[in-house]
Design brief:
Shape: rod-shaped
Order of helices and strands: HEHEEEHEEH
Largest sheet: 4 strands, antiparallel
Mean pLDDT: 80
Number of domains: 1
Strand order of the largest sheet: 1-2-3-6
Distance between the termini: 112 Å
Radius of gyration: 29 Å
């Protein structure tokens, strides 16, 4: 009788240990999913922030440099003219400066728009444009699905940035 009671105690302890191992495995898996998901989310926000900074850098560069080739800013008629849009050149300062901030950006992702503004002198020979740089078509590739053999991509939203151009010729007396 005592041997039988002792055997029941061993079986109960074994079952309790097995249940604890299963619970531990479930809790560890849930914990790892939460921690690694947090890292992945933080990395995604980092890439989005880098894209925002790249567009800001791009619009600052576009304001002080020549427009991309094939972009006829001279055809911009103010007031009320149609904006002029163009793509960045592959070897331009604009593309290089933006890629320095966000390496995922390719020149075909960069779109520059020149539109009329209401600033500058009325007798100015050339309008002062509002320059907008927009990045589109970027995709964030999370690491975790790649480790599991899955392909996943999260599109990075467009981040346009605008700035009024400079009219330095007006400050120098029209020269």
């Amino acid at each position: 009788m005592a041997a039988r009671a002792q055997g029941r105690g061993v079986a109960q302890r074994t079952r309790a240990r097995g249940a604890a191992m299963v619970e531990f495995a479930l809790v560890v898996m849930l914990f790892l999913v939460l921690v690694l998901g947090g890292f992945e989310f933080a990395r995604m926000l980092l890439e989005w922030g880098r894209t925002v900074e790249a567009t800001r850098e791009g619009v600052r560069t576009a304001v002080v440099t020549n427009p991309p080739s094939g972009c006829d800013v001279a055809s911009l008629e103010c007031p009320g003219g149609t904006p002029v849009s163009c793509a960045a050149d592959a070897d331009s300062t604009l593309a290089r400066n933006m890629q320095r901030r966000q390496p995922l950006i390719e020149p075909e992702n960069i779109h520059v728009t020149y539109a009329c503004s209401d600033t500058g002198m009325a007798e100015s020979p050339s309008p002062v444009p509002v320059v907008t740089v927009r990045v589109e078509g970027l995709t964030y590739a999370p690491i975790l699905p790649g480790l599991l053999g899955l392909e996943a991509g999260i599109p990075i939203p467009e981040f346009p940035s605008s700035q009024t151009g400079e009219s330095l010729a007006d400050l120098r007396g029209g020269s």
